[in-house]
Amino acid sequence: MDEIEQAVSLFRGTSVHDDVLTVWNYYKSIENDFTDFEKSFSITCPARCGRCCENFIPDVTYLEALAAGFYVFIIENRDVSFLSDWKSRHTCCPLFDCETKRCSAYRVRPVICRTFSSAASRTKNGLSFRSCHLSTDAHRNAVQIGEKELNTPGIRIPVMGEYGEKIRQLHQMDTRVMLLDKALIEIAGKLELLKRIIFEKDESPQAG
Ligand code: SF4
Ligand code: SF4
After folding, report:
1. Cα(32)–Cα(27) distance, rounded to whole angstroms?
2. Using one digit for the tens of pLDDT, what is the confidence trace for 188-199?
3. Of the candidates 43, 4, 3, which has an alpha carbon nearest to the alpha carbon of residue 21?
4. Which pLDDT value is given to residue 66?
5. How far is the CA of 96 from the centre of ligand 2 (A)?
6. CB atoms < 10 A from the CB of 180, how many?
7. CA-to-CA distance for 22 and 90, rounded, in angstroms?
8. Is the CB of 53 under 6 A from ligand 2?
């Protein structure tokens, strides 16, 4: 059992437990798809690049916000006030650490952050792959994948829009899409309430 599965097991019997596991399992399957693709075509990001996280705030579904919020507020025990500090100082993504140039919730980053610049796009002529145009790294910019390789049967090519579509379909009850910072504030409130219900009940004195 990994860190996320262990933490979420404390919420067994709630929708948060089921929803976090749903999105976490989906993220693991995306990782499998991308690892093979990136290895096959030598696609890597330069260490501490992070330019795609600067001047960008992802739009997220409920499940994506829940996974990120669960990690930040439950596993890392961060206070929601970090979002007010971020708002007064930064234009980057609220989960981007400007000093280390890393995502502070990388394991639970949303789908757009997983697929941006590492997935092919479907066009009327078939699949096409555009390498990252934000990186200053020459190798990263040089990654080109020919039409023939992308459309060869037997090679599994991750296609960007399909992952976004799937995450939207995974949760039928809440189909909203929100900016990550606003969504995290909502999730913080939900998790705080749930923590009080579960853990304060457990600590209450036994009757009799
Ligand atoms: S290479 Fe592109 S996708 Fe990778 S971290 Fe840099 S800006 Fe982001
Ligand atoms: S969630 Fe992480 S990977 Fe995505 S934009 Fe924010 S800092 Fe970057």
Report:
1. 9
2. 999 999 999 998
3. 4
4. 98
5. 6
6. 25
7. 32
8. yes
